Amino acid sequence: MKYFTLEWWNGVQSGDLGDPLETYEEYYSSVKDKLPDAFIKLHDEIYLHDGSLKKLDISFPEKNMNIEIDTDDGKGNLREISLKYRGLTSFNSTADPDNGLPGPRGYGDLGYDEIELLSNGLLEHRILFSSGIVFTIEFKNIELNYEDHR
Predict the structure, then answer these.
(1) Cα four-point dihedral sign 101, 103, 107, 111
(2) What is the value of pTM for the model shown?
(3) Over 70: is that where the pLDDT of 83 sits?
(4) Confidence band for 121, pLDDT divided at 50, 70 and 90
(5) What is the rounded distance in angstroms from the CA atom of residue 113 to the CA atom of residue 2?
(6) Helix locations, the chain, DSSP H
(7) Are 26 and 44 in contact (CB under 8 A)?
(8) Are 126 and 135 in contact (CB under 8 A)?
(9) How far apart are CA 69 and CA 55, in angstroms?
């Protein structure tokens, strides 16, 4: 993670980048017009924070990756989110067995995510879980679908 780190999330509120919330929002604003509509909606309206990863599927030779996340719709109801990464070029998952926040088993709560527009024209989506696991997903395009249950 470039902006949001487990150390910051765990209460160490300082770092070389200053306040990661402000720094990331500045970066996001500077590239927003170059991002896919699905990610803009994800960032501005849907939110992944406190979600739970339910499924991860990578298909080859199609080079696609799908993840399904259950989260809250902001009104206390279940929201099921599906992210479909198209043109997957890289997927990396890292973990530190000595770090993590107390909480649910598995990947833990989805904490923060950030996107970066890479110099080669690809996108990189990074996702931090309370368990300390980080996903780094490099891809060409993304689709967002969600369903709210009331």
Answers:
(1) negative
(2) 0.89
(3) yes
(4) very high
(5) 10
(6) 6-9, 20-31, 37-41
(7) no
(8) yes
(9) 7
Q: Take residue 63 and report the two structure tokens written for it.
A: 């080079």
Would you call 16 helix, strand, or coil by DSSP? coil
Listed residue (145, 141, 144) closest to 63, CA to CA:
141
pLDDT, tens digit (0-9, with 9 covering 90-100), for 6-62: 888 887 555 555 688 999 999 999 999 999 999 999 999 998 998 999 999 999 899
| 143 neighbors 89 (Cβ within 8 angstroms) | no
**How far is 143 from 86, CA to CA, in rounded Å?**
8
* Residue appearing with tokens 């995510």: 113
Is residue 104 predicted with pLDDT exceeding 70?
no
Q: Sheet harboring 90-94: ordered strands across?
A: 90-94, 134-139, 123-129, 109-117, 51-59, 64-72, 78-86, 141-149
Mean of the per-residue pLDDT values of the chain: 90
